[in-house]
Amino acid sequence: MFRLKPFAIVILIIILLGQVIFAKESFATVHVNQEVNQLDEAGSVNKYHTEGITGKGIKIAILDTGVDLKNEDITFKKGINFTSGEVTDFADRNGHGTKIAGIIGARKNGEGLIGIAPESDLYICKVANDSGKVSFDGLMKGLDWAVEQEVDIINISLEFGDGDKALKKAIDRAINQHIIVIASSGNIRAKGDMFKAYPGAYPDVISVGMLNLQGEIYAAEFKEKKVDIYAPGEDLTSTYFDNKLTLDTGVSYATAYASGFAALVVEGKRADGDVVNRETIIKTMKADLNQGIDGAPWYIYTGVVLNMVTIGGLLILGVYSVMYYRKTIPRQWPVRMIWTILMIMITLNIAGRLTVYFLSK
Predict the structure, then answer these.
(1) Which of 32, 51, 198, 347 could in theory staple to 163 by disulfide, Cβ–Cβ 3.0 to 4.6 A?
(2) Locate the Peptidase S8/S53 domain: which residues (predicted)?
(3) Do both 131 and 272 map to the same domain?
(4) What is the count of structural domains for the chain?
């Protein structure tokens, strides 16, 4: 009779366990030397960084409360202020803009935080005052300034409860210059709160919803808003005054995460000679970032299904092995069938992961 030898069992277990272990990075805030890596529940940020894709050469305009000029973790190319007559005073006295800038592009310098796109070029535009208030006029000026700087991405972690025709035209001017505009879909302030946040609600803007630490959609209301993309937004590590780090939760920070990640996608696609536009950015981000239960393309869950099948197969194999070597199984036990099933499992694992890889390109 064809027997399942012990060494064959060991080899198969190693192969199948490898499929499970390396299919998905565990999520955690990890300390490397003296620096903190950003939350990476899906493992995709680390994958890009390992491939040398860190946002280099990608220009990101941050329209917010300015930036802490003394922060050692944040460098920028240019800055401007539209909240007062002092155009050169874009210092952050609120903290929000500094947090956004750090999540997006905190430098890898041996201390503090490593941003999602640590080598991106940051353009700081102060459109919200020290109390965090922003006007349509200020935001429009910021958008036009970002267009003048020929940036690749505009991050707007701010929101209005209503739209504005002039603001929409400013957004359109940026879009027409092939700039990726990413904006908050608005925080959920109470149960059932599904208000539209502008400019995130405009069709050509990439609106961002929020995931919790477990990679699940933070609140059901985001589904009703029909956001374009979900990104981590709970307990993100952020830069702050006096070179301190904080943990923050909110759609503003999920938006910053999405903007930083978009920079990685843009750099990667340009290097491959691929088309870069709103649709390709959204498709790639949906594939690379965990999108919660309902938000992701069907093939994103292939790895999870394969892992479950593999673990089930290993458990059956373990029980079978114990029974076989204790001679409690009759000789007619279908050993050949077990071998066939194991080969099918390995084939499905390989084929499934190749499918996910090519569909997410």
Answers:
(1) 198
(2) 55-286
(3) yes
(4) 2
